[in-house]
Amino acid sequence: MKNKSEKIIVVLGPTSSGKSDLAVALALRLSSGQAQKKFGIRGAEIISADSRQVYQGMNLGSGKITKKEMRGVPHYLLDVASPKRRFTAAQYKKLAQATIKKIHRQNKLPIICGGTGFYIQALTDNLALPKVKPNLKLRAQLEKLSTPKLYQQLKKLDPRRAKNIDCFNRRRLIRALEIIKTTGQPIPRLKNAPAKNILFLGIEIAPEILARRIKIRLEKRLKQGMLAEVKKLHAQGLSWKRLDGFGLEYRWLARYLQKKTLRQAQDKLSYQEMTARLQKDTEHYAKRQMTWFNRNGQIRWIKNERQAENIVKKFLK
């Protein structure tokens, strides 16, 4: 990062906190004629940092921004992979770095927006992500372990990764263990210093307000056809196990559609219990996101759009 045009803004926060709306608002403000003249840039464009929104066809379940919500602002790294295939953090980092360079070449400002802390850290801390191919023999061994045992094993081998990962997501736990067992060490930071011209904006929101937003957003997406989306993905060839591995919405809707049990074999998962479990798991996920973000002392926590705009103005001067 040598000059003003090579700066980056990161908008982050827990799920349902309003990250996308803030990122779009900032991009529109920075694309105005007045802002372009004042800051010497030609506008701003957004790069998604969400590990599920990279997949095609996973829209409502991942909370993917719609064309209407984009309000004409270009968005990148949405729908770049098939959900039938594995998409790694290393692939994300490579694509995101290329996109950042493309945006900078146009004398525009990249805004990274998302809630996947590991993706954001891979970019901003310049993590050295190893290209580890799937080890079917090792995976078969790990599949025999319970999810809590997988998590405890990761916690012992790579505590830093364990703090961020979804501890209920077997697919991600197995992949993380596969990497560390293959390389013999936790994922390191690269020796070269990470970029300094990065502004981290975090959305601060009270837990009780966030819980209400999660509930409202869940109900809205269910009405919009989230169950139909999961049915369609399964009909297109995604196994129930694969859908379960995506976590949260896809996990619980897939289990509901399969009539999975929670305790006794005769106890079918009801719609009401499915939504309650999903609400609870999403709230827990938001807490884990905040635990991860709170480790970053560079984040400027904001409560509204005006605060964000004032900080951005000072950052770009």
What can you see in these coordinates?
The protein has 317 residues and is α/β, with parallel strands linked by helices. The chain has three domains: 4-126 and 195-205 and 298-316, P-loop containing nucleotide triphosphate hydrolases (Rossmann fold), CATH 3.40.50.300; 136-183; 207-289, Helix Hairpins, CATH 1.10.287. The protein contains 15 helices and six strands. It has a six-stranded parallel beta sheet, with helices on both faces. Its cofactor is Mg(2+). Catalyzes the transfer of a dimethylallyl group onto the adenine at position 37 in tRNAs that read codons beginning with uridine, leading to the formation of N6-(dimethylallyl)adenosine (i(6)A). The record marks 116, 139 as: Interaction with substrate tRNA.
CATH architecture assignment of the largest domain: 3-Layer(aba) Sandwich
Question: Count of DSSP helices?
Answer: 15
The CA-CA distance between the termini, in Å, is 15 Å
Estimated share of beta-strand residues: 5-15%
Question: What is the CA-atom radius of gyration, in angstroms?
Answer: 20 Å
Biggest pleated sheet: 6 strands, parallel
CATH topology type of the largest domain: Rossmann fold
What is the CATH domain class of the largest domain?
Answer: Alpha Beta
Task: Give the tally of structural domains.
Answer: 3
- Fraction of residues in H or I helices: 40-55%
Low-confidence stretches: none
In round numbers, the mean pLDDT is 91
Identify the strand order in the major beta sheet. Answer: 3-2-4-1-5-6
Could you say which structural class the secondary elements and strand pairing correspond to?
Answer: alpha/beta
CATH superfamily of the largest domain: P-loop containing nucleotide triphosphate hydrolases
SSE arrangement, N to C: EHHEHEHEHHHHHEHHHHHEH
Described by the principal axes of the CA atoms, the overall outline is globular
Number of extended strands = 6
